[in-house]
Amino acid sequence: MNILKASITSVTSSEHLSCLGVAVGEDTFYLLLAEASNEKNLLNTPVTLAFKETEVILSDTLSAATANMQRASVQTIERGIILSQVTLTYHETTIMALVPTLTFNTLSIREGDEVCWMVQPSEISLLRETHGI
To answer: What's the pLDDT at 131?
Structure first.
């Protein structure tokens, strides 16, 4: 599981959903929650984000479009028959990506390269000690 420390910077809600903007350092990530919250007192609240290694999408160019696209450097690549594990350094944090080897083989990525990594807003979980925001 990938973990990032963040703080809430914005909350937009509809009847059943909320979109949270969170700051990870100077970068902004967005996540969707299946609950509504218009509480403005959540701003600047520290939170922990979590997402699975299988939800990390890699690209060797800035061609894909998603709300959560960042750059990182490739530390290690472990190619498997079915899946390849790629270890990234994003600022001071390690991000793990588990990518189908057939897909990974189409990319021009080597250890030491800078790549784009993405995770969809619906695939990020908000870890917290209490239920509800």
So the answer is: 47
Residue showing tokens 């949270």: 20
- Cite the beta strand spans of 14-133 per DSSP E: 18-24, 27-33, 46-51, 57-59, 69-79, 83-90, 93-100, 114-118, 125-127
pLDDT score for 129: 56
Q: Which two tokens stand for residue 110?
A: 């080597």
CB 100 within 8 A of CB 53: no
Dihedral sign, Cα of residue 25, residue 28, residue 32, residue 37: positive
Q: Which of 14, 54, 9, 43 is nearest to 29 (CA)?
A: 9
Cβ atoms of residues 98 and 46 within 8 Å: no
Per-residue model confidence as pLDDT tens digits over 23-56: 999 999 999 888 766 666 778 889 999 999 999 9
